[in-house]
Design brief:
Elements lengths: L1 E7 L10 H6 L3 H12 L10 E4 L4 E8 L4 E8 L8 E8 L4 E11 L5 E13 L2 H15 L4 E4 L2
Antiparallel strand pairs: 1-7, 1-8, 2-3, 3-4, 4-5, 5-6, 6-7
Length: 153
């Protein structure tokens, strides 16, 4: 098993005032849909969001499939203000040859809502070097940059 972290090659973070760049920045949904399409039989349809809330956080949990095969999306936002970013985590389950966890945040971008992408951390566990190379090829096509990984072990 190869445990890796993305060291460079993340999507560019657009200028907060450049709406065209904000809308054009590739993100996790496109990447994960492509991974599941090319490695498995496609990304399952999303379930309705489960929402929980307390005084300081609103948490949305959305499943594409299940914990046996699919992707879990967790979004955390403030219930009171858009001054804080929305924190997001996408995690794969049952994807042959790899596990991918991508953490990022979305800044509030006026009428676009939470759309201004900020990369946080991408960690992957690959069964083999061939699985890492497969992921690398998909990443390059979707994101448009060559990923550079550092080992976590």
């Amino acid at each position: 098993m190869l445990q890796m972290r993305l060291a460079s090659g993340a999507p560019d973070e657009p200028d907060t005032g450049d709406w065209d760049a904000i809308c054009a920045t590739p993100g996790p949904r496109t990447l994960f849909a492509t991974l599941f399409c090319e490695i498995a039989d496609g990304l399952p349809e999303p379930s309705p969001a489960l929402v929980s809330e307390d005084d300081t956080h609103r948490v949305h949990t959305i499943w594409f499939g299940s914990d046996a095969f699919g992707t879990k999306v967790t979004e955390i936002e403030s219930p009171e203000t858009t001054a804080f970013p929305m924190y997001c985590r996408w995690e794969t389950f049952g994807l042959p040859g790899m596990k991918v966890v991508w953490k990022y945040s979305l800044e509030y971008a006026g009428q676009l809502g939470f759309a201004d992408f900020r990369h946080g951390n991408l960690e992957c566990t690959f069964d083999t070097i061939a699985d890492q190379q497969r992921f690398t090829g998909i990443w390059e096509r979707v994101i448009g940059k060559a990923p550079v990984f550092e080992s976590l072990t």
